[in-house]
Amino acid sequence: MTQKELLYIEDAIGHEQNIEKICENTLKNLTDEKLISFMQNEIEKHKLILEKLLKMLEVKANG
Length: 63
Fold this sequence. Notes:
By secondary structure, the protein is mainly alpha-helical. The chain is 89% helix and 0% strand.
């Protein structure tokens, strides 16, 4: 993995962490059940993406 690719992954990790925080903060202010469900699904999607990105870094660190 090149340095540029590594920086891209690190940026993407930060992006996913920020999205997750924004979604969680938004979720606290919602009352509509459909919106709550939607935001919970979005949080889960971004957690999975974050997990995949972290695994990529782990593979790089161990490789």
